[in-house]
Amino acid sequence: MRLIGNKTKLLPEIEGFLAGRGVTGGTLLDVFGGTGSVARHFRRRGFRVRGNDLLRSSALRQRTYLTLSAYPAFRRARGRPELRHFRASAVAKQARRAAPTGAGALAEVLCYLDHLEPVQGLFARQYAQGGSAERLYFSAENGGRIDAIHGQIVAWLRAGVLSDDELAVLLTSLLEAADRVANISGTYGAFLKKLQSSATEPLRLRLPKLDVGAPTGRVYNEDANRLVKRLSVDVLYVDPPYNGRQYAKNYHVLEVLAELHRIEDLEAYEAGIYGKTGLRKFEDRLSSYCRKRSTRERPSCVEAFRDLVASAKAEHVVISYSEEGILTREQIGAALAEAVGASDYDFARDHAEVRYRRFRSDSDTEERQYRQLEGRGRDEVAEWLFYLHKPRKQGAARRVA
Predict the structure, then answer these.
(1) 301 Cβ contact list (under 8 Å, min separation 6)
(2) Of residues 397 and 235, which shows the higher confidence score?
(3) Is residue 44 within 8 Å of residue 37, measured between CB atoms?
(4) C-alpha span between 384 and 321 (Å, rounded)
């Protein structure tokens, strides 16, 4: 998935940062989960993981990859006439044969959905080529295929033949398929004027690769600052948004796809889509971490961060943050020292810097140019890692959610 700040490349450094302090197991909460890559990595290492994100599309994918330890069987759905008939086809048999052990039923269902004919629905009208809204996020074919696949999933859901796990894994596959053929350069904050080559490829559902047998995790879809006040864990991993771009605004198309199955009045919902990029109301998912200054309604980034680390019910806290972010190194260190009543933060002992090449979603233009930091090569930036030890209070009750 294309997501700002994806930490996949930093996983060895994050693991080493913890292991160097003797932390090799326990319960870990990734409170700004994003793609879920960090929690998934530690789940494979035997940690009991908890994922969270304010975006529904992120929480949905995390549910699939962090909570499922076996492929769903789709027993009720496969009893439907359309799937019973499809099961005997050559393509269904081939899908089952090619699937990993235990994933045959899911492969068969995905194969059926992949062969549906396009229909004219919300995505074709609002986000696809030739649609009435004139937004070019998808080709006409792929917009119609998203509508057809999503419509069938919703029909099964309302017929009562899908479990929550089955719904999550099907929607995850659809979200990832849509993202692969989206006509964007990096985020959904804008679409390209012409279809790029990847956007003309046919949308294809792929089997999500589950970590079979891994410890079962839990996933939340909540405000991070509220959640850390409630959950007690061994390790808290904090990777907050670092710039002014609100994720809810830049990934709104995926958010629509993730929440559409819940909508009863589709006509009213579609009427509420607005603007050049097809936004929907997202005020309930605004992040204070994207704000330099506070408002009457929301704290600033530094205020929110101080509250989070002070409230955290975790013995080990690890923070990763881009050096190009709103917070300075000194502000982060001061907040961490304050959280444990220390006079200052020991940067020499508990801070590290990992350099990497910046991800570019586009090229330099007159309107926007990527900043080259002093003493760095072109596109060379650093990710900061911080560690904080918060000793547990003696006699304090410990509740791990």
Answers:
(1) 240, 288, 289, 290, 291, 292, 326, 327
(2) 235
(3) no
(4) 5
Which pLDDT score, from 0 to 100, does residue 283 have?
86
In this model, does residue 371 exceed pLDDT 80?
no
Write down the residue that tokens 């940062």 correspond to: 17
Pick from 93-107, 130-144, 265-279, 372-386: least confident: 372-386
Question: Residue 75: exposed, middle, or buried by beta-carbon count in 10 A (0-12, 13-18, 19+)?
Answer: exposed
Whether pLDDT at 348 is above 50:
yes
Q: Is-contact 106 169, C-beta < 8 A?
A: yes
> Which structural domains are found in the chain, ordered by start?
8-67+217-241+300-389 (3.40.50.150), 71-210+247-285 (no CATH)
Greatest Cα pair distance, the chain, in angstroms, is 71
What is the token pair recorded at 278? 């097809």
Contact by Cβ (8 Å): 401, 231: yes
pLDDT-derived band at 395, boundaries 50, 70, 90: very low
| Token pair in block for residue 202 | 């046919």
Neighbouring CB atoms inside 10 A of 346's CB total 12
Dihedral angle computed from the Cα positions of residues 184, 188, 191 and 192, in that order, rounded to the nearest 10 degrees: -30
User: Is the confidence at residue 151, as pLDDT, over 70?
Assistant: yes
